[in-house]
Automatic annotation (TrEMBL):
Pfam families per the UniProt record, alphabetical: Inositol_P (PF00459)
Annotated SUPFAM superfamilies: Carbohydrate phosphatase
InterPro entries the record matches: CysQ/Inositol_MonoPase, Inositol_monophosphatase-like, Inositol_monophosphatase_CS
Cofactor field: Mg(2+)
One of the record's GO molecular function terms: 3'(2'),5'-bisphosphate nucleotidase activity
Name by which UniProt lists this protein: 3'(2'),5'-bisphosphate nucleotidase 1
GO cellular component annotations of the record: cytoplasm
Residues engaged in binding Mg(2+): 72, 113, 115-116, 251
EC number(s) stated in the UniProt entry for this protein: 3.1.3.57, 3.1.3.7
Protein family membership: Belongs to the inositol monophosphatase superfamily.
UniProt keyword Isomerase present: no
Top-level taxon in the UniProt lineage: Eukaryota
Amino acid sequence: MSNNINLLELVSACIDLAEQSGDIIRDVFKSGSLGVQMKAEDDPMTKADLLSQQHIIGGLNNVFKDLIIVGEESCEIPPSTTIPNIHKLDTQKDNLPQQFQSLDPKDLIIFIDPLDATREFTLGRVHCVMTLIGISFKGKPIAGVIYQPFVDKEGHESTREESDKWTGRTVWAIVGMPVESVQDKRAPEDKDKVIIVTTASHYTQKIEESIKKINPDKVIKTGGAGYKTLMVIENRADVYVFPSVGSKLWDICAPHAILLAVGGTLTDPFGKDILYSTDPSLIENKNGIVITTGNHKKYIDLLNK
Ligand SMILES: Nc1ncnc2c1ncn2[C@@H]1O[C@H](COP(=O)(O)O)[C@@H](O)[C@H]1OP(=O)(O)O
Ligand SMILES: [Mg+2]
Ligand SMILES: [Mg+2]
Ligand SMILES: [Mg+2]
């Protein structure tokens, strides 16, 4: 029997599971007992990272057979009774590109970052925290789901004192379909500026040099690969520059798919495409990443001059 997958049903399940993981992540945060473990120096994992990944993979495996899943955390997946809703996007059926209606699971890889910006999570800077579920097909991202637990439905950030406003936001896209959940959030005073967004916690001399080459009007340093890519997608920044080792395929697959759906570009700092693969030697974005929604070649040329 064919186990072929309809992409809309898979994305629907991913949205449902990411939203449920948001409840898990908020509950762990509010409990005040994060259970921080260091996987390596500068690489924390909490109870929320683990429970979120177990919930998502357990739920996906209950509905889809033969899925190839690459999750950030190395953990057992306990038996799960969760059956995700595969019908959340049924109203979009007519918009689904024909080639995505019946996909061989052998051609798909699901990249899961159960909690992006763990360091910020442990420090209480929770606005950058996201669950990221990306779907690649034959090496390229085709769909992405982002869930932000610590913002409201519009993506507005609020403090811990206003935690009743943390209703959460989902952003999702399938490449080739209209994107509904993304807004242009450029501040009027930033209209003609060049704005770079980059890491707050892994800032290096090399990043400093790259920024000088672009000579921007403004540099925003903040946490999370998903959060920074979303800043570019929503036009709060022009280019996300991270010309260093550190991010992995699960950090970028979901944001990359949403970026592609809005016409943006993600490459390494030399302009080379990223190949989404299960090959352990390719999981790390060794050269780094550059993300734009326009003028990509201009920024790559500046970085390599
Ligand atoms: N040196 C590193 N080791 C592990 N993960 C990293 C490293 N650098 C970046 N990351 C991942 O990329 C994200 C973005 O990095 P930064 O905040 O420095 O821009 C981090 O939140 C982290 O994801 P995660 O929190 O899911 O482990
Ligand atoms: Mg991590
Ligand atoms: Mg991450
Ligand atoms: Mg993570």
